[in-house]
Amino acid sequence: MKLPLLVAAAFTLASARADYLTTFTIPPYTLDQTILGVDGWNDRLLIEKGKPDTMRVVAVRWNDYKPALMMKDANLKHPFAPTTGDRVKITFDLAMTFPDKGALRPFRIGFNGAPCGEVFMDMGAEGGLGFQADGSGRGGVVALKKAEVKINSFYTFTVAIDYAKHTYDLSITGEKRDGTPFHHQAKDVAFESKAKTVSDLYIIAGSDVTAYLGSIAIRSE
Amino acid sequence: MPARHTNSSVIACLLMLTVSLAFAQDKATLAIDAAFPGGNILVSKIEGDTITLGPDKRDSLLPWFYWYYRVTGASRRKLTFVFSKDNVGARGPGVSLDAGKTWKWLGADAVTDGTFAFTFPAKADDVRFSVGMPYLRADLDQCLARHKDDSFLQLETLTKTRKGRDVPILRIGERNKKARYAIAITSRHHCCEMMASYAVEGLIEGALADDAAGRWLRANVEFLVVPFMDTDGAEDGDQGKNRAPFDHNRDYAVAPPRYPEVAALKERLPAWSAGRPLVFLDLHDPALRTDIHETVHFLEPEERDMAARMDKLCSYLERDQQGPILYRKAHNLHFGAGYNTHIERPSPLSAGWARSLSNTLLGCTVEIAYANAAGCEVNAHSGKELGRDMAVALMNFLRDAPENTATK
To answer: Hey, are the CB atoms on B326 and A65 less than 8 Å from each other?
Structure first.
């Protein structure tokens, strides 16, 4: 039983420096269980009891059975202690299953106070995986067109915010549908927000998509 | 039916000769034929590089859309193939550059009113085209070869076909233990419905998988799988659907059954299940295009208790699926709706017959779209993943619903 103890120790060390970090692998997260009410996750729409089956931790078959948060028709929010200091780094791994025709944005994730705006999957004809949306379900930059997004394959998002310089860097890495590497980078993007911290996140996953969050970390640096 | 087989071979040879002559000016002789397992095509006209062709209906009472042909000697040429638009599916034809081993859809944008062009790569010596992605006995054998050392898998022969072929039947489970539950899976009652076979293979892989679902299934369930209920039709490339005087999935109320596979299953399955709670799923493909035919859907049984159980199974499938096909319970066809209206008793359908067995918890038909399932691509990979998802759903259905057995 040495390995789980080591993993737990490593997690404890990591979390001591992190404002929020999880890979959904250790308690309080449990395989095949909802995350509603777990570790600060809750239903964004405040529906009584929520829909626990729509947001569950599962062993992902196509990713060597590693745990991830699977979301279908889910609305989530997660407040956490506000970040401290001028520099903040947000990283998360996101994968999706989606049909090749549709409309609107069946997946959106946003971080309150983060100038990178909403990260989204847009199903429109010119849509795809993007960021910098304004939270209204419109706008933003499409980084990878829908037809090139590889289904059931994790994309790693990294956002490095410098509140003092009023700039952020964003990178997305993963694979395109044809198996070739994908890397998108936006550097020194200027912003004028008065926000100084990141303090919560929300996720909206529609009924015509299955989304997987493999890990998420928000760190003050 | 040896006579029909001979006729098919003669037609195929004539086609090869005709097309070969038409293109004799080329260095490599171009030929189109269907003289291989699963082959089916009729060439009606050749004008330059444009070839008009269509499916060979054979003994089907109604026109149907299955076709599968081979083109050789066409390296670097661009040929145009003209079909009736009713005979090409939602993502265009399936194309294989490696003699039918792997397939891709050519794409809906490549087809106009059933006509598509194809530029043959250099050294493409055997290019196959089909309405789908054919799955034959050789494909099943490849799957079985991957598990040849698996002690949980047994290959047996259900019976001999009318043409003398062995009908494979698989048993999956612990050999020295009578499992608590029985699950029977059948497909290809309509031999042309090949996309269902990928889901069957996924179910087999799911039952044998070294994961939580596989382990639970092997500990608690014995599977009986008949991948080709019309083995002759699949190998000969028949339509199978609406076969005269009736097809394999209309043979369950006749005594004795017309087809040896059906007769053998009707004997074998009740004896094998031996009173254990039984789930029976018969996998099919619907029509080629439009509406519900471009979805994965279950046909709701008439019986209320079975309908409720099907709903439960489908809830698990919708909740837990991880494959590329997004199944939605809302696509299921309620009893009395659409074409789900069979009320004959005794039922001539396999699922209806299975429901009449006293130990059956659930018997139903599952329809898997040929190419497009609510906007998700159906192909060999996604079809198999759907089967894996179905295996997980079956585990949850049996594991988490003990009340299912209490009512029987």
So the answer is: no
pLDDT given at position A50: 62
What ipTM goes with this model?
Answer: 0.90
Q: Do A99 and B322 touch (CB under 8 A)?
A: no
Query: Is B400 in the A-facing interface, judged by CB distances under 8 Å?
Result: no
Contact residues, chain A, for B322 at CB < 8 Å:
58, 60-62, 70, 97, 152, 210
Q: Do B322 and A61 touch (CB under 8 A)?
A: yes
Do B211 and A72 lie within an 8 Å CB cutoff? Answer: no
Distance from CA of A101 to the nearest CA of B (A): 6
Interface test with B, best of A54, A61, A69, A98 (most B CBs within 10 A): A61
Which residue in B has a C-alpha nearest to residue A32's C-alpha?
A: B320
Is the CB of residue A61 less than 8 Å away from at least one CB of chain B?
Answer: yes
How confident is the model at residue A171, as a pLDDT? 98
User: Do A49 and B195 touch, CB atoms closer than 8 A?
Assistant: no
Contact of B109 with chain A, judged by CB distance below 8 Å, is answered with no
Chain A interface includes B308 (CB < 8 A): no
Residue B27: per-residue pLDDT = 54
pLDDT at A51: 80
Look at domain B7-130 and name its CATH class: mainly beta
How far apart (Å, rounded) are the C-alpha atoms in residues B160 and B34?
24
CB A22 within 8 A of CB A201: no
Measured between CA atoms, the residue of chain B closest to residue A123 is: B375
Contacts of B374 in chain A (CB under 8 A): 99
Q: What single DSSP character describes residue B92?
A: B
Q: Does the beta carbon of B108 lie under 8 angstroms from any beta carbon of chain A?
A: no
Range of the domain at A160: 5-220
For the cut 50, the answer to whether the pLDDT of residue A98 exceeds it is yes
> Going along chain A, which residue ranges are E strands?
20-22, 33-34, 42-43, 55-60, 66-71, 74-79, 87-97, 107-112, 118-121, 128-133, 141-145, 155-162, 167-175, 181-190, 200-205, 210-220
Across chain B, which has 408 residues, the per-10-residue mean pLDDT values are: 44 48 57 97 94 98 97 95 97 97 97 98 94 98 97 98 98 94 98 98 98 97 98 98 98 97 98 97 96 96 96 97 96 96 94 97 98 97 98 95 51
Distance from the first to the final alpha carbon of chain B: 42
What does the pLDDT read at residue B164? 98
Mean pLDDT over A40-48 rounds to 81
Flag if B212 and A59 touch (Cβ within 8 Å). Answer: yes
CATH of the domain at A67: 2.60.120
**pLDDT of A9 over the 70 cut:** no
pLDDT tens digit string along A138-153?
Answer: 899 999 999 999 999 9
B137-400 CATH: 3.40.630.10
Q: How many domains does chain A have?
A: 1
The H-assigned helical ranges of B209-347 are 212-220, 231-236, 260-273, 304-320
Numbered ranges of CATH 3.40.630.10 in chain B = 137-400
Within 10 Å of residue B310's Cβ, how many Cβ atoms?
26
Question: What does the alpha-carbon distance between residue B86 and residue B8 come to, in Å, rounded to a whole number?
Answer: 23
Q: In A, which residues are within 8 Å of B211 by CB distance? A: 59, 61, 65
- pLDDT digit string, tens, across residues B309-349: 999 999 999 999 999 999 999 999 999 999 999 999 999 99
The pLDDT of residue A12:
42
Tokens 């990283």 — which residue? A91
Query: Partners of A162 in the beta sheet?
Result: A87, A167
